[in-house]
Amino acid sequence: MMIRYTLALLLALFVSQMFGETTNEVSHCNYLLRENDVTDDAANRFVSKLMSKMTYEEKLGQLNLLTQSDFVTGEARNHGFETKLKQGRVGGVLNMVGVAKIREAQRVAVEETRLGIPLLFGFDVIHGYKTIFPIPLAMSASWHPEAVVDAASIATLEAASAGLNWVFSPMVDICRDGRWGRIAEGSGEDPFLGSVMARAMVRGIQGDATFSGNDKVLACMKHFALYGAAEAGLDYTKADMSRHTMYNDYFPPYRAAVEAGVASVMASFNDVEGLPATGNSWLMNDVLREQWGFGGFVVSDFTGVSEMAFHGIARSDSVAGVALCAGVDMDMVSERYVNTLKGREQLVDKACRRILLAKYRLGLFDDPYKYCDPERERQNIYKEENLEKACQMAKETFVLLKNKDRVLPLKGGERVALIGPLADSHGELLGNWCARGDWRQTPSLREALEGRLGKEKIAYAKGCNIYYDMQLNRNAYYPEIDKRSVDEMMREADSVARNADVIVVAMGETANMSGESASRSNLDMPDAQRDLLKRLATIGKPIVLVLFNGRPMSIKWEKDNLDAILDVWFGGSRAAEAIVSTLYGENNPSGKLTVTFPQTVGQEPMYYNHKTSGRPLGNAQWFSKYRVNYIDISPEPLYPFGYGLSYTDFEYGPVSLSSDSMLRGDTLRVSVRVKNTGRYDGVEIVQLYLRDVISKATRPVKELKGFERVALKAGEEREVSFPIIYDMLKYYDYNLNYVAEPGDFEVMVGRNSVDLQTLKFKLLE
Hints:
The protein is built from 22 helices and 28 strands. By secondary structure, the chain is α/β, with parallel strands linked by helices.
């Protein structure tokens, strides 16, 4: 089976003129008073009639999103929820789950308020509701959008069956800095792949967006904008870059989600060009609505409206006006809209209309209880077929980083020493943002191995805790901290390892070491774990590292000294089963990295599609004075973008081009034959990159423009062909015109962003 993804699937709309930013609040607000974004006449007539009956306070209530749960992602909680609900001062509820609770809240809204307007119920369903799939960064490593659609569809079905009608997903932020913890929630560093995955997630959550049934809900694309470019990888800080970089490198996945029909957008926490995104009219109005045609509603992030006071751009009592004028329709948790907005009738009407139209689209005015069927909740959640899909998805995400002397797959007769603080963990396999995932029903790697081989074939030792000093990372607490001394734990691990034929170590990050508010200044293996690895390496037995992580890590020592490294990320509810299947060759790993792994954290931010400088290193050997390099290490990555090994071998033939030139209406074809020369059936992800050699503005050294998943049986050979069309050559120039400039281009095809064959062609006038 072959699946092809090229730029022809993505946006190619021409934007000829930018809208100038203004600091005049009246000018900002006037933009919002244009014609309605939604053109459905029936919907607009219904909403207009309803709004004619509403008081100003009731309209403000529709802009108010409250939390009513222990699930919070900030320091604030709302009080007096039931009273506010009966007063019509609530438009949506955050983090309430379960049909019984949601149905009762909905009943109060539609039966005990003056106008009976139904509620939205939102929840962070990032990579599953009850059945947990791999974290999004892992799913992107599958390079399999159709599988991502399936995963999002199952997660949505479970969430909808639990009464929810709105999920805060997909997270599409591009991130080039592994220090940022929320890199785990996105699809990595590349705008093309990120756009493909954004579309897949929206499709899985919303389907055809008719919402005729009760298995699809509103999606919420987040975080707009540039959140993944937080300075120094430090969560919530500013993102400072040129608009040229925004449009070419960071905006594409957001725009792809909008073009896929995403129903809502969440503003990001960070500062963009001197304004918090929550108060940035250029982002929300000029770019999102005017240039991209977004017609849904915008919600702040958790207390994002009130937090603008801390940014220092407005007083606490005036932040609501700033956010509303900037185009943020709904205030999450801070209650600034309902408590401080005065004299904003026209703007409030605009925001209220958008929210009511979303409820109309969902069909809540026809049936406010359409997502509140207890039988569906019992039938659709945590089904065996859902778990099987999660297991298969996990298998496709694993990336084989090293396999010296083909130590993997294991043969089955070895005595195995299973060692490490994550070897017998349950909850850590689920990863961060695991919604209603139940660690008690998630088998550990130890349990899965013992179930396959029998307890007599597995010798287990924990070996160490995550860190020596667990206070160094308060998010990194392992559920059961071993109180034994370091020496005692290491001696046990040493003894177990010496009596085994192969050592399997389960190490890396815990789930809470990545995600929100989980920035790291050091990307190495935590100290206690690396010291244990160094001790085990002296024994002389083959060592297989099963690496758990939610970000790229600087594991140079591990690469140089261990025999095999299998990156399993955080694989979800059935991760352990998928890992064991892969260790023993029933699954051949096919994942490829979607983030660059640095040698050391000092290289961050690090990404493959960087620009060259006037003093490139070129073919010179490190170190070369007055060139782009470091004095203490080579400038190369530890593992490049697109990298990933297999248990089999794939041989690439010569690359060919159908022509060495093209006109605007032409299509070139670049082709290569790929053969599985090994002993195992496998999947190879063939990657296409382009480079604009000479242009009016600087361009990256290469850019991903297509990829193809190719399943080949042992000995099978197949031709892989990519189209190259005019729109694939376009970019935003210095003046932000979307252009393709005549001249020389390079086309590169290969197995990763480094191991490539290159040909040249010319775009003619």
